[in-house]
Amino acid sequence: MLSSRIDLRVCWLIGCLCTALPGARAQTSESAPAESRFIDHSLLVAPEYPCTWPAYPFPRFQLTHERTIGPASAYNVDVLLIDGNTGTQLDVPPHSVVRPDLKREKSGPLGLAYTDKIEPWQFGGEACVVDVRDLRDQAPNGVSPLVKPEHVLRFERQQRRLHFGDVVLFRSDYSDAYYRPLPEGSRFIADILDRKAPGFPDPDPDCMEFLATRGVMTLGTDSASMGPLPDLAEPTHYAGLKHGMIWTEGATNLGALPPTGAFVCLLGPKHEGGPYSEARVFSIVGGALPQRLIESCRHKRAIDLSPTLSPRSPVTAPGFRTGQHRQSYLKIDFLYAESLDLWHHAHLMDAMAGTHLVPPAFALPPDGTKPAYAPEVRAWLDEYEAKYGPRGTSELTTDKVPLSWTCGPVHVIDVTSLVGTTPRGSWPASPEITPAHIQAAERASGALKPGEIVLFHTGHLDRYLPSHGAGVWSDPLSGKSEGWPAPGPDAIVYLKSQGVRCVATDAPDLGGVDPKRALMTYWALGSREMVGVEFLHHVGQVPAGGYFLFAALKVRDCHGGPGRAIVLY
């Protein structure tokens, strides 16, 4: 322990000298591209990929197409069985820090910092890419090459000193090389565990301690885990997580980033009591936008818009009629960690549980198909196409929706004045948001601009979550209370004419409680290649000029997608 502390002190002194060297920062504003663009750093989640931890009893990922468009359903409805250690993922302190009430050696307040408790500013920052490609495959089979403090100091000599607000990304190009369909994909994790191949490069505990002296709170690696094999995984995790760090595991495509200057963000579903979570990671490079978002995170100017996912909360739709309900959100314990007094768990859930994406393929059939709708729905389609044009088809599932479609300047439209405007005798009914309502909001707060994320503020989920669960879905759908305000197809057509690609709401969904009107709204969205983000809250806290960031899990062929929405300002 004494020698370790001496090494860290020497590293700190060297680092101070490094930052004083001429040319310490290689990336300059002159070399940055003029336009901002998005880069995805997330692994594709699909059953034939090595996306789950291969050791028993970790569950394998499953995607079930529970209902497809046809006589029994107007929508494509999917169910996920997914463990937080799937694909690109997020670790938070309770992965290794023990709850304070247990009063054990590793107990502390951060043992309660689950995925639903992390402050949203910590999910983003300036990407600082530490190149450790020279370490890849440079170790015996089953053993990880170690990223040490001197590798971080090498970065600082070439670029600049690290500080609070930086997101340190360890780039070995490991996932780029080895994340392949099985059986070739066994090289990603399984072959290492079986000692058939060298381990993935990862930081050792001293490296984590050194980063803590720099104030770094967020990390990422393109290795399969942040834990070196065979025996330093837990020491490395604890060395970082005890300081309140969070990190991404299983990132990819880090070579597309400059050494510094990009904004990087990791977003994952907000699981109650989750020590880790499946996630989506992306960056923004070029132009003025990255620096603006970096400064927002550094100064902790962020709002979390996603309600917590919990089995005790009505986070999935019960359906318009009996038998039409979506898969309820379930927590499935599969492995007990005695040291943490905590169960590792997976989730069985509808792909639209909680905050989620609505891609065009949710309501549109695949290209080249002509589904046989139920007679009632067929009549609705004839009426829709007579007024709005062909419904169309789509292959745009969640994994194919560009990240730039669900991120952008936020334009909040307050429609709370519509609450209480439908007569009780008409229930179940939702007040319809029309083009006139949108145009009135434009006159009051400024015209819509192409690329903006329109966010309808209904106040519905703020009123009914978490204590009055029946008010979220059941009472409005059954006619016991008024439905939430929802845009009709005319509003969607108008928004598209103004260059809007993404429409979001703090209501359960964009459709409302009338099944005919809801379907027409989703047809209008899909046929115009627009997407929705549903089930938000705290929209009334969003200030003017905020930037909306949402990303859904990158699940192949999924017709929905749980995720996390935040606003930076």
CATH superfamily (homologous) name of the largest domain: Putative cyclase
Q: What proportion of the residues is helical, as a percent range?
A: 10-25%
Largest sheet: 9 strands, mixed
Strand order of the largest sheet: 1-13-11-5-7-9-10-4-12
Mean pLDDT score, rounded? 94
**Number of domain units:** 2
Give structural attributes.
569 residues, alpha/beta, Glucose Oxidase, domain 1, 2 domains, eight-stranded mixed sheet, 13 helices, globular, disordered N terminus
Describe this structure in words.
The structure is a single chain. The chain is an alpha/beta fold. The protein has 2 domains: 33-68 and 82-295, Glucose Oxidase, domain 1; 352-568, Putative cyclase (Glucose Oxidase, domain 1, 3-Layer(bba) Sandwich). Helices cover 21% and strands 21% of the residues. The chain has 13 helices and 25 strands. Strand 9 (218-221), helix 6 and strand 10 form a beta-alpha-beta unit. Helix 1 (2-18) packs parallel to helix 2 (149-158) and helix 1 packs across helix 5 (205-213). 51% of the residues are buried. Residues 1-33 have low confidence and may be disordered.
